[in-house]
Amino acid sequence: MAGYIDHTLLKPEATEQQIIELCHEAVEYGFYSVCINPSYVKTAVHALNGSTVKVCCVVGFPLGATTTSVKAYETAEAIKNGATEIDMVLHIGALKEQKEDYVLADIAAVVRAAAGAPVKVIIETGLLTKTEKILACNLAKQAGASFVKTSTGFGPGGATVADIQLMRETVGSEFGIKASGGVRSAETAREMLNAGATRIGTSSGVLIIS
User: Fold this and answer.
1) Total number of domains constituting the chain
2) Of 54, 71, 133, 149, which is the active-site residue?
3) What are the residue ranges of helices labelled H in 59-99?
4) Of 87, 106, 120, 133, which is the active-site residue?
């Protein structure tokens, strides 16, 4: 299961030393990646030098309400600094207003700035209706993203089996789905993978696989 986990530390009070420890744990336990804030990308790249662990960086986090140009710049800088995956938050308010062209362009700009690195689109399922979840998934796929992701962990609720199943039905069998938010046990992680998730985002990775 470790190979499905993005070992995550996104708390605002996280220190550089804690990020280094996160990276060392990722190497020790064989997690797929570390998922961190932009200012720590260089730190993580250095700490993971020589390992196979990827560096995943969040963008527009956690609200998704920054402008498209800022998200694109943040993405390009993260890639320049060594990030190999991007987890972006879509503009939730624009989605709820059904501004489909805006949301599509917002995601597409990040995809372009990522220069081929996988982009996961955080749709914050706890704030969306079923119809909005379907729309968000379709827009992410249309914009060229590689994954849809349930939540930031800062919004209401978190990953649920029902949402993962809905997302899988919407995006099809080949698209990535990241279950994130409230996944704190091996049992829950297995439920998410069985429902169709292909990646798990959690700050409880060590506990899950222990």
Assistant:
1) 1
2) 149
3) 68-80, 92-96
4) 87
CA atoms within 13 A on the CB side of 141: 17
Find the CATH number of the domain harbouring 185: 3.20.20.70
**Is position 149 annotated as part of the catalytic site?**
yes
- Token pair, residue 76, equals 């390009």
Respond yes or no: is residue 106 known to be catalytic. no
Coil, strand, or helix at residue 209? helix
What tens digit of pLDDT does each residue of 40-57 get?
999 999 999 999 999 999
Q: Which among 133, 165, 184 is positioned nearest to 5, based on CA atoms?
A: 184
User: Which residue range is the domain that position 80 belongs to?
Assistant: 2-209
Q: Is 133 a catalytic residue?
A: no
DSSP 89-113: EP-HHHHHTT-HHHHHHHHHHHHHH
pLDDT one digit per residue (tens) for the chain, 210 residues? 999 999 999 999 999 999 999 999 999 999 999 999 999 999 999 999 999 999 999 999 999 999 999 999 999 999 999 999 999 999 999 999 999 999 999 999 999 999 999 999 999 999 999 999 999 999 999 999 999 999 999 999 899 999 999 999 999 999 999 999 999 999 999 999 999 999 999 999 999 999
Beta bridge partners of 169: none
Structure tokens at 153: 């962990």
Percentages of the chain per state (helix, strand, coil), in multiples of 5? 50, 15, 35
